[in-house]
Specification:
Strand order of the largest sheet of chain A: 1-3-2
Oligomer: heterodimer
Shape of chain B: globular
Strand content of chain B: 15-25%
Strand order of the largest sheet of chain B: 8-7-6-11
Structural class of chain A: alpha+beta
Low-confidence stretches of chain B: 447-456
Mean pLDDT of chain B: 89
Number of helices of chain B: 16
CATH class of one domain in chain B: Mainly Alpha
Mean pLDDT of chain A: 88
CATH topology of one domain in chain B: Cytochrome-c3 Hydrogenase, chain B
Number of strands of chain B: 16
Largest sheet of chain B: 4 strands, mixed
Largest sheet of chain A: 3 strands, mixed
Shape of chain A: flat
CATH superfamily of one domain in chain B: Cytochrome-c3 Hydrogenase, chain B
Number of helices of chain A: 3
Order of helices and strands of chain A: HEEHEH
Helix content of chain B: 40-55%
Helix content of chain A: 25-40%
Radius of gyration of chain A: 16 Å
Chain lengths: ~120, ~475
């Protein structure tokens, strides 16, 4: 799902998920960063700015659902007008895709492990 | 002049704004200003682009009401190519628009205005928010989420995606609707109507319990403007512009393309937002309000049965005269939500809605094109000037928040005078000042770009410029 911003209407859809990965551009920090995130009440006073942790908090409050969630932050380097990604951001994106693929693989393996009959 | 209080940023609105409250030596409010102090560059960077790109470029102005810009822009482009688009295309555009009205109005009532009304102006800011509302009334919260989702789903099913679609093009739209998507929309809209009616009942109950506050809160006479159908009923996609004076007299009706004859814009040196005014009454007397309150004030009726029934009750609020209190914007917004849902059902049941005749080809014939639409927050005007090849020479965009600029300034001034006591400052007082702005649901993103997060900070300085008191809300 490609979005400009997180909004309330997405809660119902996320309530159906067991896992969620939020991928977003970062203004600063490491080139690529992935971390597990948890529901947290971090209200924003601007409706245009909703943190994934807050989104998960609403989900838990309203739908009593708590999917395992990760935030994948990809560093951006040039936010000026223009077309396409800067070479640095493109490199971050490529690394991010690999991390995402590994994350999905890891989750799938864990799911298979859990589904395997126990002796 | 004594002290100055600054509310920065104003919270639970779309975008950034600042309020300055100037106090006299006794701590009484002397004057209040509503500032929008970021620069809007969209008109400038449309220059030199092909006119046909405008529906895709200008919708990026906003992530909340992109459909309004998308459609106003497409209508301006239709005028450039001189094409009257096929009826099925008009219906599909209006359907997307109704989806946006539902999602935007539902979000405003629940996420932005609801905490003040349902939890109280003076409730602890730590709970006076969406989470507080969810905890206080999860049933309403679930229904609000569904309504927002229904609106967004109409946009997605009809236009291809929820935010920033490429659907409306000069000459029509680029995709017809199929039966499966039509039936899905009909199904959830039938589910949504009782939710909206429940919201209206909540608003009416709140109003009846807070009658005095409702009638006095930021209540002032003004002109009103909005689109109406030929029979004078509420219109959101097309129609003629109706202007009503503060006495409730309809003083002018005109085609949107003639807006420059009737609307002027005044500037002030303390804000980047201009102050539109009705030229016939001049810059001092010609200020007016748009949006839900303005539209219901200028309309004679509503064409859908359930919303019309509510409209008749709304009209009784001030004995048939214009409803003046800003808090009634919330009530009017819910009635419009009901209209939008009913109108969407009407459109989906129209025999033309599945037609493949959704586009008429055209090339630039006119040097100017003007598109006018009623965005959720009020009348939106896109005006383009192009050369013979269709390259944009310049554009003029007047957004709803601009039309309401004077009214928001007036509202914060009245509420600050009524509630703010500089010698005994409480957070709830300042929240009421913000609440006056929230009535208008301003979309400052339509004129600015919000970056990052800032806390609310109120600082009070004495006459020597020394900081005396600081209240911070992180």
């Amino acid at each position: 799902m490609f979005l400009q911003e997180l909004s309330l209407d997405l809660l119902e859809e996320l309530a159906l998920c067991d896992y969620a990965v939020f991928v977003d551009a970062a203004l600063e920090g490491e080139e690529v960063r992935v971390r597990e995130i948890f529901p947290e009440n971090k209200p924003s006073f601007l409706s245009h700015h909703l943190l994934p942790e807050q989104f998960l908090f609403w989900l838990e409050e309203l739908y009593h659902r708590r999917p395992r969630a990760f935030l994948l932050s990809l560093r951006g380097y040039n936010f000026d007008f223009g077309e396409g990604l800067s070479p640095e951001a493109l490199a971050s994106a490529e690394k991010g895709i690999k991390i995402l693929e590994n994350l999905i693989k890891e989750v799938q393996e864990r799911e298979e492990e859990n589904e395997r009959p126990q002796n | 002049m004594g002290e100055k209080i600054t509310i920065n940023p104003v919270t639970r609105i779309e975008g950034h704004a600042r309020v300055s409250i100037f106090l006299d030596d006794q701590g009484k409010v002397e004057k209040t200003y509503f500032h929008v102090d970021q620069y809007r560059g969209y008109e400038k960077f449309t220059e030199g682009r092909p006119f046909s790109e405008m529906p895709m470029i200008t919708e990026r102005i906003c992530g909340i009401c992109p459909i309004s810009h998308h459609l106003a822009s497409a209508k301006a482009c239709d005028a450039v190519i001189g094409v009257d688009i096929p009826r099925p295309a008009k219906l599909l555009r209006e359907l997307v628009h109704m989806g946006q009205i539902v999602q935007s109005h539902a979000m405003h009532f629940f996420e932005l205005a609801g905490p003040d009304l349902l939890l109280g102006w003076d409730a602890d800011p730590a709970v006076r928010n969406v989470v507080g509302l969810i905890q206080a009334n999860p049933d309403i919260a679930l229904k609000a989420v569904k309504l927002r989702k229904f609106g967004q789903r109409i946009i997605e099913l009809t236009a291809g995606r929820r935010i920033h679609p490429t659907f409306a093009v000069p000459g029509g739209v680029n995709a017809a609707l199929d039966e499966a998507r039509r039936d899905e929309m009909l199904s959830f809209l039938e589910e949504g109507i009782p939710y909206i009616q429940e919201g209206i009942e909540i608003a009416k109950k709140w109003i009846s319990e807070h009658k005095e506050e409702c009638n006095q809160f930021a209540s002032f006479p003004s002109g009103y403007m909005g689109l109406v159908k030929k029979d004078g009923s509420l219109e959101l996609y097309d129609g003629i512009v109706r202007f009503m004076d503060k006495e409730g007299k309809i003083v002018r009706e005109f085609e949107g393309k003639d807006y420059l004859k009737y609307i002027g814009e005044k500037v002030e040196d303390w804000t980047y937002l201009k102050f539109p005014f009705f030229k016939e009454l001049g810059p001092e007397e010609g200020f007016y309000r748009v949006g839900p309150l303005g539209r219901l004030n200028v309309a004679d009726s509503i064409s859908t049965p359930l919303a019309h029934k509510e409209f008749l009750e709304f009209k009784k609020v001030n004995g048939g005269k214009p409803v003046e209190s800003s808090l009634y914007y919330h009530y009017a917004r819910l009635i419009e939500t009901l209209y939008a849902a009913e109108r969407a059902i009407e459109i989906l049941k129209d025999p033309d809605i599945l037609s493949q005749d959704v586009f008429t080809f055209g090339t630039p014939k006119n040097e100017e094109g003007i598109g006018v639409i009623e965005a959720p927050r009020g009348t939106l005007i896109h005006h383009y000037w192009v050369d013979g090849t269709g390259t944009m020479k310049k554009s003029n965009l007047i957004v709803a928040t601009g039309h309401n600029n004077w009214a928001m300034s007036k509202a914060v001034d009245l509420v600050a005078r009524g509630f703010v006591d500089g010698k005994n400052l409480k957070e709830g007082m300042l929240n009421r000042v913000e609440g006056a702005i929230r009535c208008y649901d301003p979309c400052l993103s339509c004129s600015t770009h919000a970056v990052g997060k800032m806390p609310l900070i109120v600082e009070i300085y004495n006459q020597e410029g020394k900081l005396e008191k600081r209240i911070q809300r992180d």
